[in-house]
């Protein structure tokens, strides 16, 4: 109710400001990039609260009417014409060089701030402004696509969004069948890991006693989940996703649950890319679950490996023999996993290759290739287990040949694991995963086949 009251208040102020603008401005603003930039300049010139709020809303409304070319021209104008005040910055630099002091350093800091940062702050005052700015950054990211001409603008926008979406402002809410339908619909739409096919499928994921779903919200975007996690409560660590999502599965009595499985984490707002909420979400959900269910003692993921097959197919510097490469040709048959013999041969090659992928393979910049691995290992998890044929969905087979992994969040080790990964790039892994890398897992499989 407080949020609704505040939104109504802002809308009233904005509407009164629009009235003032209509009375004071004879000519209408041109609804193109040049006209929008002129309006932004006027917004920065300093007006009253009501008219400024209305003008900010008008800027965002006109932006929404622009086509892709107009939006790019607008972004280019912000880079070109809304940088720091160069004269003011030059004077601040001269003052600092003449007699450096803390006060002069502060003046230099504020003088170096681009005008577009203050513009973005003023746009954020408009009713619904925060959500519109998040969507605007999504447009910006789409237009950058490796180009650097808009990078300065993106740094300014992401800097402010990082402050506004600080963990202290986020609200954790449980998503269940009593959650408003408009939010549930967005959970269906935004699910990025394991597609939710319909409302019945959603209900199976959030309504049973052994299922949970949690999301972070922001007070300025009360009906927009920013990120959400789906949780299965189980007795042991699972190795496959299909049994967790099965239509006819048996629900686990809650008193028997000992393991919380984070099987899907989805970011929902592309415009908040690079602003991480996931680590906070997992840690807070763990706290919530431990309070509700003190007998839970294992917290683990069942995670996809989205980059694995792309890495295998690039076929450069892979630790493979000619015989191994011949075996990999069997992947060309989309139903290969239905043949026990073929599946066993491919397992002997792909499991050690998956261990190498996680423990040894790196990008040219020295980072782990897999984005999911970077996320969980950076949070302090341990690579616990590689699961053969853990995901038989078309997406899972296409991206990882069905391979899934468990990352274990052992609360006593999270900080130590995080430091090892952050400082030394060390992947903390179980002995079972390390044995696969050494080839022991393959030798054991060969023995079983012979």
Automatic annotation (TrEMBL):
This enzyme's EC code(s): 4.1.1.9
Class of this enzyme: lyase
Residue span, Malonyl-CoA decarboxylase N-terminal domain: 82-165
Transmembrane segments: none
GO molecular function: malonyl-CoA decarboxylase activity
Domain of life: Bacteria
PANTHER family, per the entry: MALONYL-COA DECARBOXYLASE, MITOCHONDRIAL, PTHR28641
Protein name, UniProt field: Malonyl-CoA decarboxylase
């Amino acid at each position: 109710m407080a949020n609704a009251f505040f939104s109504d208040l802002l809308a009233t102020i904005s509407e009164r400001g629009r009235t003032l603008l209509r009375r004071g401005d004879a000519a209408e603003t041109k609804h193109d990039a040049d006209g929008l930039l002129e309006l932004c300049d006027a917004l920065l010139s300093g007006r009253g609260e009501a008219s400024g709020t209305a003008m900010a809303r008008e800027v965002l409304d006109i932006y929404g009417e622009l086509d892709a070319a107009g939006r790019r021209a607008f972004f280019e104008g912000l880079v070109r014409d809304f940088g720091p005040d160069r004269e003011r910055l030059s004077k601040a630099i001269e003052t600092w060089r003449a007699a450096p002091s803390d006060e002069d350093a502060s003046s230099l800091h504020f003088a170096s701030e681009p005008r577009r940062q203050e513009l973005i702050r003023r746009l954020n005052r408009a009713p619904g402004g925060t959500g519109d700015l998040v969507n605007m950054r999504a447009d910006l990211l789409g237009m950058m696509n490796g180009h650097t001409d808009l990078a300065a603008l993106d740094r300014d926008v992401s800097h402010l969004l990082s402050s506004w979406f600080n963990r202290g402002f986020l609200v954790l809410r449980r998503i269940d069948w009593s959650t408003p339908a408009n939010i549930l619909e967005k959970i269906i739409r935004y699910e990025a890991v394991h597609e939710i096919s319909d409302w019945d499928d959603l209900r199976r994921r959030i309504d049973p006693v052994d299922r949970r779903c949690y999301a972070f919200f922001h007070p300025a975007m009360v009906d927009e989940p920013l990120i959400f996690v789906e949780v299965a409560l189980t007795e042991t660590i699972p190795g496959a996703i299909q049994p967790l999502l099965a239509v006819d599965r048996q629900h686990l009595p809650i008193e028997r649950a000992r393991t919380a499985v984070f099987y899907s984490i989805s970011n929902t707002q592309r415009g908040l890319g690079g602003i991480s909420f996931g680590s906070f979400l997992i840690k807070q959900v763990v706290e919530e679950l431990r309070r509700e269910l003190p007998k839970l003692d294992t917290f683990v993921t069942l995670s996809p490996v989205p980059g694995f097959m792309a890495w295998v197919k690039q076929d450069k510097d892979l630790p493979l023999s000619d015989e191994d490469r011949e075996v990999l040709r069997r992947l060309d048959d989309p139903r290969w996993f239905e043949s026990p013999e073929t599946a066993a041969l491919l397992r002997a090659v792909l499991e050690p290759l998956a261990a190498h992928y996680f423990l040894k393979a790196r990008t040219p910049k020295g980072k782990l290739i897999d984005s999911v691995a970077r996320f969980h290992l950076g949070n302090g998890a341990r690579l616990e287990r590689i699961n053969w044929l853990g995901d038989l969905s078309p997406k899972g087979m296409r991206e990882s040949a069905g391979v899934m992994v468990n990352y274990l969040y052992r609360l006593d080790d999270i900080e130590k694991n995080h430091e090892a990964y952050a400082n030394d790039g060390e992947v903390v892994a179980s002995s079972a995963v390390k044995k696969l890398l050494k080839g022991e897992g393959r030798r054991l499989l060969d023995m079983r086949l012979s």
